[in-house]
Amino acid sequence: WLVKTVQEVVDVPLCIDSPNAEEIEKGLEVHNWDKGKALINSITGEKEKIDRLLPTIIKYKCAVVALVMDERGIPDNSKTRVEIAEKLIKVLTDVGVPLKDIFIDPLVVPIGTNDKNGMITMETIRSIKEAHPEVKIVTGLSNISFGLPERKLINQVFMVLTMGCGMDAAIIDSTDKRMMAITKTATTLLGEDNFCSEYIQAFREEKLTFEKK
């Protein structure tokens, strides 16, 4: 019922997120595909999870979020994360999932637990995008600042850094005007805004302004 209810008021496809493969399939069954291709969250490098979700992915031809973790947990280095990403990309493309429909999550871990965690994520993003430019990168961005003061500041800076490494999408607070303005500006500076048209339009709509402390 939730998928139907949400799609009554939005014109975009949904990301269906559940640890339960059966619930994901139920969501896909009622998803309005006229509004676009559904995205499911998520598959991992764990054999059990691959075996459970792959038939559903094949059946519905949906887009997929793939986490760079496996039976060993979340790797503490970019090399192993990239290896898991390569494995998942092969598994998915072998059953017909286009590269553009694969969303790799490099896994953002708080820098409060290891001050190299930000660099590990960025190195993972760069390596995957260099090898597979068509593959999308999505992150749970705000995890980076967990447990630290002034979390919004850390999130905003990390947003720009990861975008520069090739990140395509992030789970962020869309009501954070400063974050949205920074994201729009970074998109323009990264050469992804033809003749700065989107930046200028955002300025006209007063989306680049925010209250200053």
Radius of gyration: 18 Å
* Total number of helices: 8
Percentage of residues in DSSP E strands: 5-15%
Count of β-strands: 6
On the 0 to 100 scale, the average pLDDT is 95
Question: Low-confidence spans: pLDDT under 50, at least 5 residues?
Answer: none
Provide the domain count: 2
| N to C succession of SSEs | HEHEHEHEHEHEHH
Strand order of the largest sheet: 1-2-3-4-5-6
Annotated CATH topology of the largest domain: TIM Barrel
Distance between the termini: 42 Å
Largest sheet: 6 strands, parallel
Which class of secondary structure composition applies to the elements?
alpha/beta
**Which architecture of the largest domain would the CATH scheme give at its second level?**
Alpha-Beta Barrel
Can you give a write-up of this model?
Belongs to the vitamin-B12 dependent methionine synthase family. It comes from marine sediment metagenome. Keywords: Cobalamin, Cobalt, Metal-binding, Methyltransferase, Transferase. By secondary structure, the protein is an alpha/beta fold. It folds into 2 domains: 1-172, Dihydropteroate synthase-like (TIM Barrel), CATH 3.20.20.20; 175-212. Helix content is 46%, strand content 11%. The protein contains 8 helices and 6 strands; from the N terminus they run αβαβαβαβαβαβαα. It has helices spanning 2-7, 21-30, 47-60, 78-94, 117-131, 151-165, 177-189, 197-204; strands at residues 15-17, 39-43, 63-67, 102-105, 136-139, 169-170. α5 (117-131) links the parallel β4 and β5. α2 runs parallel beside α3. It is globular, with a radius of gyration of 18 Å.
